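Structure ticket #2291
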Amino acid sequence: MGTADLQQSIRQNLEIHGPMLGKELCERHGETSYLAMWQACYSDLTIQISHFSRYYLRYDITRDDYVRLSPSILRDFLSFTLFSLPVQRDAVIARQVGLSNHHREVSIVKIRIAQTLLVDILGWLPPTHVQKVCAFIAGDLAYFLGHDEPRKVKQTGDLVNGSDIDIIIVHEGLDDDAIRRIDDDMLTAKQFYLRSPMHRHEVDYICKPLSRMYDQFAYDDIHQKIASKIVYESLFLAGSLELYGRVRDEMEASGAQMKIENDFDSGLAQRKDAMQTLLKCDPNALTENIESLFYFSQERIEFT
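Resolution: structure written out below.
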């Protein structure tokens, strides 16, 4: 199907079914590649485009420039963009509100799971020790962009329900036994939520001393940048709010926060350039570099 015929088919679907997400349009054109669908939607000036995502910084270790914006262009197209005809404005607003609320509800459910397991895991600590540890959550959940699309975990092949739950635990002055118990309990919780048929959540976590967290605010290498960015986007979960506040204050005082915000501006400019490149390329002759502009390397297992 040529581009003009594909665009006509998309408009007909929108006229019949109302505003549609990118993934819904793709489902009705199963023989057409994601990129060809994206190009058709974005090059047709009669199709209205409504984004309802919030973009945040991401570092892709597989690319030399590292800086990306999340959601990826493909994820944004499939899950966070509505396409419609000019006469469907009211229907777009109504659908956008419903979808935004859905992503918020998914995020809240996953955040509550994280809070519950952290409260349980830290519950055995005496009050004086609770002041030495804080836990926070990051990733798309921190922006209330959580999704529940089934996906496979790359390392294990397990099928999980949507967004993973990224938990960071920072401690100051805890003894080795306490740190070991926290780590063991988190590993047990990780296996439970992954294997339980009622949950199927991927829980990722890291437990680190405050001194290491502060060192990472140097923002020099890719690992320090990722660690700093996680604090920047985080939401407090459990433990000491005072300690969490100190971590946030140090992030700002160190200059890491300003560097993150500058990187976001760079990522936004690169996003615009990537979209222009994708509009001009041949969707039937994709190179590895073009694919990397369209979606992240970690998403390959989902989109191929």
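Closing remark: The longest strand covers residues 165-171.
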